[in-house]
From TrEMBL:
Name assigned to this protein: NAD(P)-dependent oxidoreductase
Family of the protein in this entry: Belongs to the NAD(P)-dependent epimerase/dehydratase family.
Domain NAD-dependent epimerase/dehydratase: 6-168
Annotated source species: Streptomyces narbonensis
The keyword NAD is assigned to this record: yes
Length: 268
């Protein structure tokens, strides 16, 4: 039966805040969790991913987990290890112990960030391209995907790993014309990931139906995802304002763009 009660980790973050608005209309009852208090959600669980007792309580009785929590940019390895590597392990252990059947995992384009980006006429990047992280952050997403595979093979916990492109209200760079996942399409993709029949461990790219897409969306579409947005209406102005990436620059060469040479740093 379709999942109804869903633990949403990282509920105070960028994507989490958008999804708290956009997922309930699909019929979900969200149980928000974050390491900081969640604005406008006084009942949200405030817990660190290091707190295994709290995580076990948090997953108890939910039908599925949408795991967005963790550090979302590059940081010192120790911080990435605690939040994204050990934290994701702790969450999966809690899910296994409490019999949660499915996790939707926020992976990232940065798990394959050093992959060459296709130019016009070249084939799209397939989901089975080898892991090629561009940062410790991207490496932690590779770990999450492999952990998900292990928990499926060993324990029968299902996961859809979503390699999210750039999920913001609007694209704000030329690179995002290719990577943009509109918030509405993100909700569509999470809904498809939560409701599709047997998924085992499935990896999908998360972007809208962008004219300039680099991704192969076929595995996402196979789950029932039908993206409705396209960044193209933003293209003319963004290109006029910022210019196309210089030939041979990171944005020109790699999926991960500037993360490959000058990754933005987590503030804390
Ligand atoms: C990510 O994985 C980051 O979490 C997000 O902040 C964006 O920078 C995005 O990738 C991106 O590549 O645009």
């Amino acid at each position: 039966s379709a999942p109804r009660t869903v633990l949403l980790t990282g509920a105070a973050g960028g994507v989490g805040t958008l999804m708290r608005e956009l997922l309930p209309p699909y019929g979900y009852e969200l149980r928000p969790l974050d390491v900081v208090p969640v604005q406008g959600a006084p009942d949200a669980i405030v817990a660190d991913l290091a707190d295994r007792t709290a995580l076990r309580e948090a997953v108890r009785g939910v039908d599925a987990v949408v795991h967005l929590a963790g550090i979302s940019l590059e940081a010192d390895f120790e911080k990435i290890m605690a939040a994204n590597i050990a934290g994701t392990y702790n969450l999966y252990e809690a899910a296994r112990e409490e019999g949660v059947r499915r996790v939707v995992l926020a992976s990232s384009n940065h798990a394959v960030g050093f992959t060459r980006r296709p130019h016009e006429g070249e084939p799209l990047v397939p989901v089975d391209t080898p892991h090629r992280p561009d940062t410790f952050y991207g490496l932690s997403k590779c770990f999450g995907e492999d952990l998900a595979q292990l928990y499926w093979d060993l324990h029968g916990v299902e996961t859809v790993s979503v390699r999210i492109g750039s999920c913001f209200p609007e694209p704000t760079s030329v690179r995002m014309l290719s990577m943009w996942l509109s918030p509405a399409d993100c909700a569509r993709l999470l809904h498809a990931s939560l409701t599709a029949g047997s998924v085992g461990h499935t990896v999908v790219y998360g972007s809208s139906a962008n004219t300039r897409a680099w991704w192969d969306l076929s595995t996402a579409r196979a789950l029932g995802f039908d993206p409705q947005d396209d960044s193209e209406p933003y293209a003319e102005k963004l290109i006029a304002d910022k210019g196309l990436p210089a030939e041979g620059s990171a944005d020109d060469l790699y999926v991960g763009g500037h993360f490959c040479v000058n990754p933005p740093r987590w503030p804390h």
